[in-house]
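TA notes. Do not distribute before section.
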Amino acid sequence: MSTYSQKRAQPRLRALMVGFAGHQGKEYLPVVREYADIVGGVDVAPAAGALADDWGFPRFTGIGEALKRVDFDVAMVTVPHSEHFPLCRELLLHGKHIVKEKPFAVTEEEARQLIELAEGADRSVYTLLQRNFNPVFQFARKNLARIGDPYWFSYDYHFNLAQPTSGWRASREQALGGVLLDMGYHLIDVLSGMFPEPSRVNAAFVHHYQEMRDRHLEDLVSLMCSYPSPTLSGSLRISRHNHEKSERLCVLGTGGALNVEPQGATLHSTGGRLLERFTRPGPKTDAVRAMIAHYLGHLDDRDVREDHFRRQLTTVRVIDGIYRERSRERNELADRYS
């Protein structure tokens, strides 16, 4: 039998969709179906039943029920941050692979526990981070050396929401953090793939709305990153209520500059001469499709798994460290005025 025939003979993966009725879950449904059979879904949302009927799979209201009722190889998890760890722990204890929305974990302790559980079960836990599969960001990583030694970066990412944050992201108990954990996770992960882990991060947390201040959920965060090498520093600004939606990474090096936006990137020499312009060759959905195909195709690849674990542990550790320092400062301030 030819290699092609052997591949064709392999059974399709069976996927369980957890949180499929939310915005992100609905976006992934058609892509997952290209590469796997969706054998069930877990969601308590009122609209989940009708959506499951439309897609032709059974709907369950809890992960325990799904584990008893259907056999599956991998769970696609798109739920509020507070539900990630207990869900993933339960799935790994039952020997299931996981492909999940960010964050990989909320705290470094949870990240280490998750990695230990995954390695013990010989299962993967992959995090859905679209920028890693966007050709523009791939171009940036590949060509970073062309600007010499990087000495500065600035990374800005803004939404233009006209109203206060709503839904589970407005709940401290469910979100467990504001824009840093939500939007910022993507940016910290991008930087983790380009630079060493920062040795120190100074953070300013800002609130547009009083209700978000009361819940300790930042509307804007500004970060200044220092690195083991004194020749590299950088800044990030992340917010939900800017006048326009935008994302831009600029890296300055001893030999030029790299500018990256989701739609394209440019390389310039020192002095501003354009060296190369790269434009994303297809729509955003191409990156989503490539991401899900890659993860589902490497569930049993231990090398890919270990690389993913190392990078996600770095990303979680940086964000957890920022929040811990912020909590310490807030407690010191409260003690001072108590």
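Switch to the second chain here.
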Amino acid sequence: MIEKYYCVMGKLAETYNLEARKYKLKARNKEELNKWKKELKSKLKELLGIKNIEKNDLKPKVIEIEELEGYRREKVILETETNVFMPMYVLIPSDLRKGEKRPCIIAAHGHGCAAKDSTAGRIEIPAVKKSIDQYNCDYGLKLVKEGYIVFCNDARGFGERREWMNQGDSEEDLIKNSCNAINNAAISLGKTLLGMMVWDLIRIVDYIETLDYCDEKNIGCIGFSGGGLQAIWLAALEGRIKAAYVSGYFHSFKDALMKTNFCGCNFVPGLWKVIEMGDLGALVSPKALLIESGTKDPLNGERGMVDVQEQFGITKTAYSILNTENKLYHHIFDGVHVFNGGKMRGFFKEYLK
């Protein structure tokens, strides 16, 4: 029996303490904040590898249409970069009138769910029903029933985009992902999985602008867990997003990513030297931003809500500078790692009109 282990994570934490947050929020007024935001956005796009991705023609193809109770579900394939294809569902309310434009919401999925099938609420698939029962992650379906046009995509490495080592049709296979394999390859090429995920969501925004029934001035995003990761990054880097609902993903990189969140989609080379989570939230300002946190969510890290509140305080500083504190919310509920959605309806009703 081994009585002592010689580990390295403690040393990495020391390195973090010495080198972290070179771009931390220090602004004291609007001019300093705007300058910081401009410089930081450019730096983050560089770290994510987004600057290395070339824009191309989306070449959208609608390959399936189903009329369901209260809405239509279209399956669409987009070519988000050359020879990279992304399947997604577009959920369209049945009461959409000819010539009418509706607000749109991009619904990013997290881990442990069966990708777009879960956000779109396809409970006829056993693995999907199981994930929805566990995480309440069918928020795409809930939102189309509120009258929004909703876009539910497969993130890279999930659903129909799983790589060869994770493919298959069993219940277990359907919730697998290829995050680590993709990110390990990507970082050696100057790219990151997170950057590619965010790029794909930006291309959905591009697609929205081509649809005559979409109100391109009223675009929101939502996500739980890994979907919350994608949603906050999209809101921070994409100017066309008006409101973001981030659930189950708002905690410091240090407390959580060294302890709990080890999936490759979280890890960007050099990111910790630049910002913390609260700085990323500050970059979203002055857009409407709602952070949703479960008090017993283990992914918050060992300090729990203390850590979450610290990061929220950093974000709040930016909103205070811009006098837009009324557009920043922290919905705290008594629960574990699950999508709560208690403020979802009111939040989007207020900011997507």
